[in-house]
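I hope you will forgive my troubling you with a question about protein structure. I am sending you one protein, given as its amino acid sequence and as whole-number tokens for its backbone shapes. Thank you for your consideration; the sequence and its tokens are set out here:
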Amino acid sequence: MSAKICALAFACTVACGSTFAYGPNGHLEVGAIADAMIAGTPTATQVRKILGSTLRTASVWADCAKGVSPTTFKYGGEGRYAECAIYENTASERQMEAFVRRNVGNCTSRFNNTEPCHKQYHYTDVAVQRVAYEKGKVGTTDQDVVSAIAATIAVLQGKPCPPPFDITSKKEALRLLSHYVGDIHQPLHVVAVYVDATGKVVDPDEGPFDADTETHGGNDLLIGSKKLHSEWDTVASSLASQPPSAALMTLARAVPVTAGDMSGWSTAWATETLTDGKVAFDGVTYAAADAHHHHGVTLPAGYSKLKTDVQRKEIARAGARLAQVLTAIWH
């Protein structure tokens, strides 16, 4: 495959599917918060030993790996995204390619979605009507972000990697965890609205399920030509400072450690994001579907501020929880 074709495939990978939660700057901020919280501890020493870098740097690896073609298993994103430049060398590209090759076809497709398996590790789509994350409900799968986080934690604890995941090293697991913790704190990677052809919000868990009502994490909801998902990916510069702002670090340090065994932490986080993230759909109205099952949406007044306020809280939580889970493993 030519370099030009690979680059085009990479562009579609990012533009056509679930894209960077919070954008790369948001993920980098989550990693930076965690780096700051573990600085000077044995956990930081262990992280450096495994990664050879920081959590901030590792936090974008899982999305950079989306630049690998799911058919040729060649990376084709060279020069397109600054945050991926550190991985654009022969050794690192081979690592991304190997991860995709092992994980691309491990699981069944969701609904009418033919997305490769490893891309499904980044999200779940729990209906806005639900009050908690519960396996078996529409939008949840054994390969969603809740299960993916649990799998990476198991590998870091020295346990076998549960299927359908194929994670072969602690380095790979830590790279993935540093990203997925950011994903699970992005509302549109957890809570979803299901809309019928007329623009009416429906409950997919009530009665026969119609796959055409799925909105793919807000990627099928359009504000003009912009996806609602992309609106939530976009992070204000005030939330992406390096080092993290004192205000953001104060929020992060106030986040309590999740109760219970670590194997259930990602379920608790998903429930919290579901609960707090429902505001992403408050006051939003939906037009009838077009031929591609896309709906035009109208946002209520004050939506931008609401989004920024939620992002601030969730980015702080994500950074804190990444630090907390690693500290719990290597205390």
User: Anything to note?
Assistant: The CA atoms of residues 33 and 249 lie 7 Å apart. The longest strand covers residues 295-298.
